[in-house]
Amino acid sequence: EVQLVESGGGLVQPGGSLRLSCAASGFSFSSYAMNWVRQAPGKGLEWVSAISGSGGSTYYADSVKGRFTISRDNSKNTLFLQMNSLRDEDTAVYYCAKRTTANNGPYYYYYMDVWGKGTTVTVSS
Amino acid sequence: DIQMTQSPSSLSASVGDRVTITCRASQSISNYLNWYQQRPGKAPELLIYAASSLQSGVPSRFSGSGSGTDFTLTISSLQPEDFATYYCQQSYSDPYTFGQGTKLEIK
């Protein structure tokens, strides 16, 4: 069974740090790009960060650039999100999601087909 | 960044109704458009990718259409488990932005 399980969430003070993990199973982890997506309480989905299968390419939303770092350990089938200088507005459920690519001739379509259940991060003094 | 705007933001409907949700992109995204369903307290689930391709395991009452800037998600006959929030997402260019969501409620 393809599965993603997040961990590492919790309560942290503004300016603090937290490291999220996402354990993957049931698929060839290193073959897939991975994403972090968050959802603030009562709000919609916000894409946060992505990393290529090899880990050589990373991408960030402007709202977290310079504060968050995405990484992965393919030997342990685990995705990470290091979050520094946390702000109140970073309070959210953080989901990891597997990105799959479908191609139709020269066209490549990207979508997130497997999601974890999420881990809650609360930034508050 | 490409802005995605969904309408309506909320919608009341009854079991058996046909429902359409619209998603508009701030610039042309060809057919690089995904739809997700999120039930309360649960993670999102992929419904449709590439604007009209149904994800494996998703009931055929869900369908998607559109290209360029205007897209629709249609549920042909609402079932009780379909009452949820629906999000569109563009995968044309980074960052892969989401719409604000459409909450589908029971009338």
Layout of helices and strands, plus pairs?
The complex is a heterodimer of chains A (125) and B (107).
Chain A: E1 3-7, E2 10-12, E3 18-25, E4 34-39, E5 45-51, E6 58-60, E7 68-73, E8 78-83, E9 92-104, E10 107-115, E11 119-123
Parallel strand pairs in A: 2-11
Antiparallel strand pairs in A: 1-3, 3-8, 4-5, 4-9, 5-6, 7-8, 9-10, 9-11
Chain B: E1 4-7, E2 10-13, E3 19-25, E4 33-38, E5 45-49, E6 53-54, E7 62-67, E8 70-75, E9 85-90, E10 102-106
Question: Could you characterize what this model shows?
Answer:
The complex is a heterodimer of chains A (125) and B (107). Helix content of chain A is 0%, strand content 57%. Chain A is mainly beta and 125 residues long. In chain A, the strands form two sheets. In chain A, strands 2, 4, 5, 6, 9, 10 and 11 form a seven-stranded mixed β-sheet that branches. In chain A, strands 1-3-8-7 form a four-stranded antiparallel β-sheet, with no helix packed on it. In chain A, a hairpin with a 4-residue loop joins strand 7 (68-73) and strand 8. The mean pLDDT of chain A is 96. In chain B, the strands form two sheets. A six-stranded mixed β-sheet of chain B has the order 2-10-9-4-5-6, with no helix packed on it. Chain A binds chain B through residues 37, 44-47, 50, 59, 61-62, 95, 102, 104, 109-113, 115-118, and chain B through 1, 31-32, 34, 36, 38, 42-46, 49-50, 53, 55, 87, 89, 91, 94-101.
